[in-house]
What we know:
CATH architecture of the largest domain: Orthogonal Bundle
Helix content: 55-70%
Largest sheet: 4 strands, antiparallel
Order of helices and strands: EEEHEHHHHHHHHH
Amino acid sequence: MSDNLKITRLETQKKNKNRVSVFVNDEFAFGADLELIRNYGLQEGSLVTRKLVDEILLKDTKKRIKEKAFRYLAGRAHSEKELKTKLAQKGFDAKLIEEVIMELKSKNFIDDESFAFSYVRSRLIHRPAGERLLRQELWQKGIHEEIINRVLQKVFNETPQAELAQQLVVKLNRRYQNLEENKKRKRIYEFLIRRGFDWELVKEVVDKEFV
């Protein structure tokens, strides 16, 4: 495209009524959000520069990134790392993703500490686990170590790991009631270790159950 462009046609896109295809000399030039087109006062016959087009496309891309981020957040809470990863997988520019993420963080749409608390509490309700496994899962989601430490300390002060492990032992004891005691104990040991409880704690609660 030359520096001075004359818009010859604006056409609402068939697949998305909120986007407009912009034609220069009756050839497709670019697509943009309808709101942006209106805000810039673009219409058939308007003259625009390449610089203005670049500005519109930049704002359009950031708007699409933000809309995609909100769709992800509407489904469930995400950590900063999770959201960045999903947006990058959609092919968006890393620098623009970072700018959008910073804006969302400043408005508290992304809060890793709140996310970590919600994640851990939900995990303990639906699939109880010990500190080791929870720490690993939070780290994989990009949560910083100091946040992980605060969250796990608070959560396990509310509900001690020994209490969680004991509840699982009682449940597993019923599940494996038809097994011989040695096999039952082995199954329970292995289950609790996989769930991230320390060996010493597992031994303590299992021995207590099988006194």
